[in-house]
Amino acid sequence: MSTTHDLVAALKSELKAAGITYAMLAERLDMAESSIKRMFSANGDLPLSRVDALCRVLGMDFADLARKVADAQPLLQRLTLEQERAVVADRQLLMVAICVMSQMPLSEILASYALSEAQGVRCLTRLDRLGIIDLRPGNRYHLKVAKGFRWLPHGPVMEFFRREVLQDYFAGGFDGESEMLTLVHGEIGRGLAASFRDRLTRVCQDFANQHLADQKLPPEQRQPFTLVIGMRSWLMPALRDMKRPGDTT
User: Which residue among 47, 71, 95 closes a domain?
Assistant: First the structure.
């Protein structure tokens, strides 16, 4: 939980969802309504004993409240350079990090990869300390990165992918069931490029959402796919080398 403000906001939200007004809360806590309003004001004082009392009124414990506060925190769009360096420096940690980005539970990670439970828990604990997940009881976790999360374009993780993954990926024939590889070159209006980029971004989000929806299927009914989408203002070297001097198109 980050600040007292976040805690107060979460409590207000829970009171509203439960239909409990300040007047009703004052009666249940045997306090003046003015004291309740002051407690929830921007400069109010909310001691831990009051938090416990509020949780009892709401029928929840402090751990439930803490999780709601954590879930309400803004999700990460990017990791820092230091976070990515820490992830890449440990191959087991990198593998588990990639898995948790797909929200695989630890049980499935252990069933799929040569990793002991102790090693898996160690990696989850490390990712929690790095601020990538919020580790919860039973080795469950809450992912703290946004749906549109991207690795740093020239950061350690993308450098790892370029060095060790891309060549292997594109070495495939792309001729299997539901596979495809298409390269399209053309010139389009500058204003339309952003529109195409946004449409491609939505395809990635649709793929990610389908992955999450299909987690309820048994493993034998799922098949791993990797979607790579890229668009950049670029000419292949064979064409670039033949450009006339001074032609900037």
Answer: 71
Residue 181 lies in a domain: yes
Q: Cβ(75)–Cβ(144) under 8 Å?
A: yes
Q: What percent of the chain shows pLDDT beyond 90?
A: 41
Q: Closest Cα to residue 64, out of 136, 144, 138, 145?
A: 136
Domain count, the chain: 3
Domain identity same for 8 and 67: yes
Task: Tell me the residue type at 203.
Answer: V
**In the predicted model, what is the mean pLDDT of residues 63-82?**
78
Residue 246 lies in a domain: no
> Following DSSP, what letter does each residue of 226-238 receive, concatenated?
-------S---HH
Q: How confident is the model at residue 174 (pLDDT cuts 50, 70, 90)?
A: very high
- Look at the pTM and tell me if it is higher than 0.70: no
pLDDT per residue as tens digits for the range 217-243: 888 899 999 999 989 898 888 878 888
pLDDT at 90: 95
**What DSSP letter does each residue of 43-75 carry, written as one string?**
T----HHHHHHHHHHHT--HHHHHHHHHHTSPP
Cβ pair 182, 175 in contact under 8 A: no
Task: Report yes or no on 244 lying in a domain.
Answer: no
Domain that holds residue 226: 172-238
How many residues would you count in the chain?
A: 249
- Same-domain check for residues 48 and 99: no
Residue 165 lies inside a defined structural domain of this protein: no
Residue carrying the six token digits 């938090």 = 51
Written as six digits, the tokens of 50 are: 């009051």
